[in-house]
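DATA SHEET
Item: assembly model
Revision: 1
Owner: S.N.
Input lines:
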Amino acid sequence: MREGSLSRAALRAAAIVLALLLATLVMLAAHAPPLAAYANIVLGAVGSWDVAANVLVAWVPLLLATAGLLITFTAGLWNIGIEGQITLGAVFTTWMLRGLQASSVPPALILACAVVAGMVGGALWAMLAGALKTFGGVNEIFGGLGLNFVASALNLWLIFGPWKRPGVASMSGTVPFPPALWMVTVTPQSRLSISALVIALLGIGLVYGMLRGTHFGLRLKAVGRNEKAAYLLGVPTWQHMMFSFALCGIFAGLAGAIQVTSVYHRLIPSISSGYGYLGLMVAMLANFNAALAAPVALFFAALNVGSIQLPIVLRQDSSLAGVLQGTLVLFVLLAQGVRQKLTGKGAT
Amino acid sequence: MNVELRSIRKTFGTIQANAGISLSVPSSCIQGILGENGAGKSTLMKILSGFFHPDEGEILLEGERTIITSPADAIRLGIGMLHQDPLDFPPFRIIDDFILGRKGGLFPDRRRAGKELKALAAQFGFDLDPDAWVDTLTVGERQQLEILRLLWLGAQVLILDEPTTGISQPQKEKLFATLKSLAGQGMTIIFVSHKLEDVEFLCDRVAVLRQGQLAGTAAPPYQTSALVRMMFGKDVALGARTAAQPGRSILSLEAVGIDGARLQIRDVSFRVCAGEVIGLAGMEGSGQSLLLSSCAGLTRTVAGHVGITDCDMTGHSYHAFMRKGVAYLPAARLEQGLVPGLSLAEHFVLSEGRGGPFIDRRAAAAAARERIDTYNIKGAPSHPVEALSGGNQQRMLLALLKKELSLILLEHPTRGLDIESTLYIWGKLKERCAQGAAILFISADLDEVLQYSDRVLVFFAGRMSPALPAEGLSVERLGELIGGKGWGAFARETARA
C-alpha cells in the first residue's frame, strides 16, 4: 500500500514536470520568454489583494461545478451537459430577477428567489439529459453536448431578443440590475462575495460528506461501479442516476446564479465562462476525490486569473493557461494509465 | 491438410482450460469434438485458429511445426473458423462482408468478387444475393456466407463451433451435405458440438474432451451410452439424498412464454413448493437461464403468468420480486453479483439498506465481522470484494442474502469452487430449504444436479422437459436428454395424457 502511494506520487510529480515542459515548449515556439511568462502568471494570481480576490471569484463557480460533477462521476456518469446547466441556472435567475425587480418584494427575498430559481433551472436541464439517457437510450455525453448548444442558443436568443437592451441589442448582455439586487461583496467595487464563497465551500463539504458517509452516497457508488450488481442488490438504479443528475444540476445552476447576481449583475452570452468543462478537468485531476477538489480548483482558478496578465505584459495570448491545464490533466491521466499498465492492475 | 496438436496446455488464471491435449486430424476427415460446457473445446479450437496462444505444446500442419500468431495468420495458413455467433457485419452488404478479410489493393474489385461469390454459392446450392444486407439473413444463411468467405480466402481446414445451434432442419441438412462434399474434396473439417445426434450422423471420428483433457475417441458405429460416459465421466456414487417435505406453493408458472435473443420458450408450466430443490440442466443457451431470470422478474415474460406465493407477479420488476422474498444469484459473481471497489462491509450496508441517511461505520463493521465469521469468509470487513477468491466471493453472495427468503435462484452456484466450498455452500442452501425456501439452480455439473435436486428440468433448444424426479434418473439418461435424445418419450406421454 505504502509503496503504491509512493510510486503514484512520483508519477504524478513526473506528470506535472512534463506538463510544465510542454507548456514551456509551446511558449518557446511562440517566442515568449517562459520564465517571464510563469512569473507573470504567478504575479497575476497572487501579486495583489485585488488579483487574489479575483482568483477567489473564479474559484466559486469552478468549485460548485466540480462539486456537482463529483456526484455524477460517482454514479458513473459523464455529465458533459454541465455547461448548459450553468447557463440555464443563469437564465432562470435572470428571469426571476427581471420578473420581481419592479415589485415591492424586499431585495433580499428577490435575491433568494433568484438563486433558488437558478438551482431549479440547472436541475431541470440536467434531468432532461438524465431522462434522455434513461428513457431515450441517449448516452449522457451526446445528450449533454447537444443540450449545451441548445442552452447557449437559448441564452443568445434571450439576450438579443426578448431581453435585449432598449435601443440596441449587444454582446455585452442584458441591462445590468440595480445594485440593490447584487449579492453583497466585500467592497462595493469588488466582485468577491463572502456569501458566495461560503455557499461554494458548504457545497463541496456537503458533497464530501454525502459521498463518504451516507447510504445514498454508497448506493450511488455502487451504481457507478457496477450497475447490474447494484440492481441485483436491490438499489433502484435509474432513479439514483436521475437523482444524481438533478443534484449536479442544482450545483451547476447555483454557479450560474452566482455569476449573474454577484459577478456580472446581468446575463451575458458566455455566462458559463467554460467553468463546467474546467470542472470536468478539476474532477479528473483530483482523481474524483472531493477532499482534493477544493485545492485543485483553486490552482486552476489561479492559473486562469494569472494568465489574464499575459496579453497585457508580454503580448501573449491568455489561452496559455488552457494549454497548461489541458496538458496537466492529460499527463496525469497518462501517468495513471502507465502505472496501471506496469502493475497490470485495473482501476484502483 | 493434416493437422496435429501436441500436448496443448492453456490456463486462464487458476482454470486449466486445456491440460495437455494431443489430437491429430488427417485431411478428407470430418473430426467431431464432443464435450460439455467448459470441457475445453472452444479454447482448443481458438488456439488452432490463432485467437489464443498455447502456454505449452505445438501445432503441426502437414507435419511441420507452425506458430500461429493471429486469426489472420491462421487463414493465411489455410485454417478458417466458423464461430458459434457468426463473426460478420450485420450493417454491411453481403459483398462487402465477403471482401473484408481479403488482403489487397486500395480499391476492392467488387464485381470480380461478386462473380466469385456467386460461383462458389452455386457450387453448394446456396442462394445469396451479393447486394443484400447481412442483417436480413437468417443464422443459417450467415453461416453459409461465412463458409464461402473462408473457402474464398483459401481455407483448407474448416473449424465449425456449434454450427447447428439456431438453424433450421433443412439448413442443417444442406450444411451437412456441404461439409461432406468439402471433405470429399480433401478438406479437413473439425466439427465442435455437444449434440450427440449431429456428431453421430456426420463425423468420421469423434474425440471427447472432459475437464481440459482428451477423455477418449470413438469411431462409427457409435454407442451413445459410451459417448455420454466419456463426456460426463464415470458414474459417481451419490451421497444420501435428503427427501424434501414439500410445503406451501412458492413458485407457479402457467403457460409462460419468453422471447430470448436466440430462442423462444413457449407454454411452460410447473409449480415449486417450499423446501424443494429444482435442478435445471441443459447446454448453455438452451433456455434454462432465460427461465431462471424470468422467475425473478429480470426477463419479461411474453405470455402466461408467474406467481410467487399465491401473488400474480407477471410483469413486475425484480425489486417487486425481491420484496416477495425472491433472491437471484448470478453466475458472474464479480461482474454481476458484487461491486468491485466496495469493501465487504459496504456490501452488507448496501444490501441491508436504510435506517437513517447516515452510515454507522462502526456498527457496519461489527455486523460485517459477524457475517464473515458465520459464513466462514476469508477476508476482513475493510477488504475490497475483488480481493476475495472465487469460493469466498460465492460465500459472500450467500452471506448477502436476506434473512427471510421464499425463493432462491442460482446460476452455477459452485462453478469453479473446490470440494470443500461446494459442500459448504450446499449445506447453507439446504438450511434455507429447511427454513421453508425453495431453490432453483442451473448447473453444468450433472452430478451436482442429481445429487442436490429433488426434481430436474432438462432444457434442449428452448424446450423444457416435465419435472423429472432426480431419484431414478441416471447420469447417462440425463446426458442423453441434454444432447437432445429421448425427448420423444415426453411427447408420447403428453399425447397419452
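QC remark: Chain B touches chain A through 27 residues (CB under 8 Å).
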